[in-house]
Amino acid sequence: MSNQRSALDALSAAEKAAVLDELLAARPDLREPAEACAARVMTDAGRSAVADDVEDALQGLDIEELNTRAGYRPGRGYVHPAEAADEILDEALQPFLDDLQRRAGLGMRSAAVELAAGILLGLYNCRDGNSETLLEYSPDYTAERASGVVSDCARLGIELPTELLDLMPEWSAMLH
Q1: Main-chain phi, psi angles of 152, to 5 degrees
Q2: pLDDT tens digits, 113-158
Q3: Rounded to an integer, what distance in angstroms lies between the CA atom of residue 50 and that of residue 27?
Q4: DSSP string of the chain?
Q5: Can you name the residues that pair with 79 across neighbouring β-strands?
Q6: Which residues make Cβ contacts (< 8 Å) with residue 1, sequence separation at least 6?
Q7: Residues 6 or more apart from 8 whose CB is under 8 A from it?
Q8: How far apart are CA 43 and CA 17, in angstroms?
Q9: Where are the domains of the chain?
Q10: CA angle 37, 39, 43 (to 5 degrees)
Q11: Maximum Cα–Cα distance for the chain, whole Å?
Q12: How far apart are CA 46 and CA 91, in angstroms?
């Protein structure tokens, strides 16, 4: 038994992607099982896990980041702390929104529905803007972004689950 670590285990995500590309180019017969595995990975995201990830992403941001974004900035002028907070929060939320677009674009409707529901639930859980987070600088952030997600879903043909009305009573008007 060798004590050496696996080279595959030591690879970065980008290196693993390069290995997969090379392997699929050398072995086209592996494309079908790789596609099935990729589809399974993309459909496994449960809404509660997504909600937790969104909540963690938005509430886990360092409030000190405002110091580098707010105030007077050469070439930009004055940047209000609320505007800077919105920018930072948007950067944290954007990967989830990109993932929603990607899944909808691949025709993975049920996965897109679960992802959208998770994003909305995560935003809803952050609606009170806890002190000592960037959300306190932008009290309307979660409702505004949730409205955008609802609009995106309508545009993408994603029908949101009706049980969200019960889970997010304060936003029921927006969800209609």
Answers
A1: -60, -45
A2: 999 999 999 999 999 866 678 898 888 999 999 999 999 999 999 9
A3: 34
A4: ---PPPHHHH--HHHHHHHHHHHHHH-GGGHHHHHHHHHHHHH---HHHHHHHHHHHHHTS-TTHHHHHSEEETTTEEE-HHHHHHHHHHHHHHHHHHHHHHHHHTT-HHHHHHHHHHHHHHHHHTTT--TTSGGGG-TTHHHHHHHHHHHHHHHHTPPPPTTHHHH-GGGHHHH-
A5: 71
A6: none
A7: 16, 19
A8: 19
A9: 1-44, 45-175
A10: 120
A11: 63
A12: 22
Residue 166, amino acid: D
**pLDDT tens digits, one per residue of 22-34:** 888 888 898 888 8
Place of tokens 């696996």: 6
Which residue is it, tokens 């595959």? 8
Contact 122, 53 (CB under 8 A): yes
**Residue 47 neighbours by CB distance under 10 Å:** 20
Beta bridge partners of 93: none
Total residue length of the chain: 176
CA distance 102 to 74: 36
Residue 120 tokens, joined: 């909305």
Taking alpha carbons only, the member of 153, 144, 165 closest to residue 116 is: 153
